[in-house]
Amino acid sequence: MRIHRLKISAFGPFAGTEEIDFDRLSAHGLFLLNGPTGAGKTSVLDAVCFALYGSVPGARQEGKRLRSDHAEPALEPAVTCEFSAQGRHFEVTRSPSWEKPSARGKNGFTTQQAKTLLRERIGGAWTEKSGRNDEAGAEITALLGMDREQFTRVVMLPQGDFAAFLRSKATDRLELLQKLFGTQRFEALEQELSALSQAARNDVSRLNAELELLSARAEADASPLALGDSGVDGQADPAGRIAWLQAEAERNTAELSSAAVAAAAARTLATGRFETEVARRERRRRLAAAQARKAAAEMAVPTLELQAA
């Protein structure tokens, strides 16, 4: 995500209309929001958050407090944020609920409901995407891949909140970072590779069991104790018994050899499939990691860090 432009009207300490060109600022590299307490540094960050999600961080998220107390009574509070995400260009304009002076009476007021307009730049022209608060919010959340809480904890940390993030529980940080960078795919990869490995081990165990069974049969058929059930007449001449034993030995040897070849082939096939899958998944992991690094870099420019004077 990259923020290009921010326009603020009657919002927070800004009584009039202010506009910030972030593209111009970021063209010079890193930049700093600096000023005395109360100058509006936090309100700039609040305006970005409000434009994207319809609310601001922490205790300041009460909508009726967002309008500037210093603005002209009839000036509508509004924030417009132009940004790009996932290779697409958007503009969102939000206005919180506020009390507008009634045209019918000097002392009357009319409540104006919160409004949202989300537009996308397509073919050099702005195309309306949504005019509903919830629908626009859901689409922006999907575009950025994080909700307001995650955005304020990762991308836009107010004063002191970065330390709070670092001090939070490891499980909380893990959950946040997993959702932010989509690491669930790597967990799924690990589970799938584990399943493939287990399936290969099962095939090898099954074939080894067959080998042991055939080996046991061969030993049993060759032992003198098995001669009584062999179907060979006990009074047969020794030459006949020897010929039968040789035939049985050759048959068992052939079966054992065939099973050994099958087991080796199964091992080779399972190993090849496993290694191919590991290589394919590794390529996908590297691609996903590169995409995550690219997304993180896009979110880091321009950097929105608040420094107290």
Explain how this protein is built:
This protein starts with a strand and ends in a 9-residue tail after the last helix. It is built from eight helices and eight strands; from the N terminus they run ββααββββββαααααα. Helix content is 51%, strand content 18%. Strands 2-1-3-4-7-8 form a six-stranded antiparallel β-sheet. It folds into two domains: 2-145, P-loop containing nucleotide triphosphate hydrolases (Rossmann fold, 3-Layer(aba) Sandwich); 186-294. It is rod-shaped and about 130 Å long. Mean pLDDT is 79; it is low at 225-235 and 303-309. β5 and β6 (109-112) form a beta hairpin. It has helices spanning 22-26, 41-53, 133-144, 148-154, 161-167, 170-181, 184-222, 238-300; strands at residues 2-11, 14-21, 78-85, 88-95, 98-101, 109-112, 115-122, 125-130. By secondary structure, it is of the alpha+beta class.
Which characteristics define this entry?
8 strands, single chain, 18% strand, 2 domains, 8 helices, alpha+beta, disordered C terminus, two-stranded antiparallel sheet, 309 residues, Rossmann fold, six-stranded antiparallel beta sheet
